Every structure is written in C-alpha cells, then in structure tokens.
Amino acid sequence: QLQLVESGGGLVQPGGSTRLSCAASGGTLDYYAIGWFRQAPGKEREGVSCINFHGYSKNYADSVKGRFTISRDNAKNTVYLQMNSLKPEDTAVYYCAGRLGYEYHYWGQGTQVTVSS
C-alpha cells in the first residue's frame, strides 16, 4: 500500500519561498502521477499542480503559474513543490496524492502553509 507523507510547510512571509516534499513509502512512485492540492479554511479543495510518472508533463493552476514548480526525483521516491513569491491567498493545507489511472487513490495527511507577516 503506497503511503505519502508531506513535509516542508510552515509560516512564510509574503514574497517568500518554501519547498514542499511528498515522500512515498510502501511502494515506488515510478509509475504514479502525483498531484498537489490545497484547501483553505471555508473553501473547497483545489488542484495546484501535477506531474506525470516520468516528469516530462507538468500542469499548474492559473493562480500559481510562474510561481510554483513541481518536480520529482524517482530515485528518492519524492515529489517536490517549490513555492516562490508566496501570497497570503496561498495559505492552505497542502496535500499530495498519487494515481495510476484517472483517479487519485493515495493521499497524504497534508501540511500547513501559512503566508503572513
């Protein structure tokens, strides 16, 4: 059973940067597409970015394009989300999720990112 664990969240100042990690255990990420999602208080969960299994195809929500970068290191069984030029509206719990087909079946527990001065 694939298990995903996010890390790297915390308190960041507006305009600052942080990198989230999504580490897998119980299996290899090699064949999984990985997505990053976020959910702010009182809002629905939204997709932020996703990367296919070999890392050549990446997609971003319009709200984060040019600021966030997704990448993966299959040798380390980890996917990253580099977040730059952070804004208060990026404050949310960030989740990573894995899928083999069309649906995300494996989810991490989430990591809080708070952008505030």
Describe the protein.
The chain is an all-beta fold and 117 residues long. Helices cover 0% and strands 50% of the residues. The protein has no helices and eleven strands. It has strands spanning 3-7, 10-12, 18-25, 33-39, 46-51, 58-60, 68-73, 78-83, 92-99, 106-107, 111-115. Strands 2, 4, 5, 6, 9, 10 and 11 form a seven-stranded mixed beta sheet that branches. Strands 1-3-8-7 form a four-stranded antiparallel beta sheet, with no helix packed on it. Strand 5 (46-51) and strand 6 (58-60) form a beta hairpin. It is globular, with a radius of gyration of 13 Å. The model has no long low-confidence stretch (mean pLDDT 96).
Gyration radius, rounded: 13 Å
Uncertain segments are: none
Report helical residue fraction: under 10%
Q: Which word captures the global form?
A: globular
Distance between the termini: 40 Å
Count of strand segments: 11
Q: Would you summarize the structure shown here?
A:
The chain is mostly beta strands and 117 residues long. The protein contains no helices and 11 strands. The relative contact order is 0.32.
Would you spell out the secondary-structure blueprint of this structure?
Elements: E1 3-7, E2 10-12, E3 18-25, E4 33-39, E5 46-51, E6 58-60, E7 68-73, E8 78-83, E9 92-99, E10 106-107, E11 111-115
Parallel strand pairs: 2-11
Antiparallel strand pairs: 1-3, 3-8, 4-5, 4-9, 5-6, 7-8, 9-10, 9-11
